[in-house]
Amino acid sequence: MDKSLVITPILNFPILKTGDDLTNIIVSTIKANNIQIEENGILCVASKTVSVAENRFVKLDNVKVSDSARQLHEKVPRKSPQVLQLILDQTGNDEASIRISGDWIGAKTHIGRVLTSGGVDKVDEKTAILLPENPDRSAEIIGKAMLQAFEVNVGVIITDSDGREDIAGATQLCIGLYGIRPIRKKDDTEETICDMLAAAAGLVMGQRGTNIPAVIIHGYEYDFDKNVRLQDAY
User: Fold this and answer.
1) How confident is the model over 17-57, as pLDDT tens digits?
2) What is the C-alpha end-to-end distance of the chain, expressed in Å?
3) Are 54 and 138 in contact, with CB atoms under 8 Å apart?
4) Which of 86, 124, 129, 211 is the most exposed place for a label (fewest CB within 10 A)?
5) Domains of the chain (ranges, CATH numbers)
6) Of 62, 67, 56, which is closest to residue 90 (Cα–Cα)?
7) CB-CB contact of 39 with 66 (8 Å)
């Protein structure tokens, strides 16, 4: 990289509802912000924005709680048995994929990443929301829409806020991507560049309540490859 990164927020992003056309909203909001999209720019989009559009909501009353979830509830009582069941579901009900440290619980999810609460978030006392079912596919759909709208290739990173058991707060990491390789190799070193870019985007996107669920990054040089997937990093 021989120039500075420029991270541009996509402001005045509308509050999404289930079934909204996310790609159309992203494109129209970028145009409303008069943002010039360059070849090999990178669009970072918050996972929960994608999840809302894809209707990944779950009614907690409809969750059938297993004995395994009840046993987890004894270890992590701050999480309801229903939410713990959803966390288990994200692992394919593989109890070995659950990690607990004090009040912190994480899980290796179906996308292969270890995430706090398996990426499950409570919306309110009756509802939870899951990660996109296939974040790489979601990123691909967005990337292809960007190409059609702006006639340039744009890498897409789906980001998720994630905490750790060993330190307070949260950062952002990548749970799905399109067009940009997840690993940057140089000499004998490897860097998880998809997470580094997601974390950089988080400086502008912030956490809940900022209403900046998407940013554009320009200045990172890479070879666009429509065939890459997050699993290439595993």
Assistant:
1) 998 999 999 999 999 999 999 999 999 999 999 999 999 99
2) 24
3) yes
4) 124
5) 6-56+132-233 (3.30.1330.100), 57-129 (3.90.1660.10)
6) 56
7) no
d(CA 63, CA 98): 19
Please check whether residue 110 is in contact with residue 87, taking contact to mean a CB–CB distance below 8 angstroms. no
Q: φ and ψ at 52, to 5 degrees?
A: -60, -50
Say how many C-beta atoms besides its own lie within 10 A of residue 156's C-beta.
Answer: 27
Residue 50 has a CB neighbour count (10 Å cut-off) of: 26
Structural tokens at position 87 = 């966390």
Single-letter code of the amino acid located at 214:
A
Buried/exposed code over 166-199 (b: 16+ C-beta within 10 A; e: otherwise):
eeeeebbbbbbbbbbbbebeeeeeeeebbbebbb
d(CA 214, CA 226): 21
The predicted model scores a pTM of 0.94
Q: Which residues contact 27 (CB under 8 A, 6 or more apart)?
A: 145, 146, 149, 150
66 close to 82: Cβ distance less than 8 angstroms: no
The one-letter code for the residue type at 73 is H
| Residues paired with residue 99 on neighbouring β-strands, in sequence order | 106
Q: How confident is the model over 108-147, as pLDDT tens digits?
A: 998 999 999 999 999 999 999 999 999 999 999 999 999 9
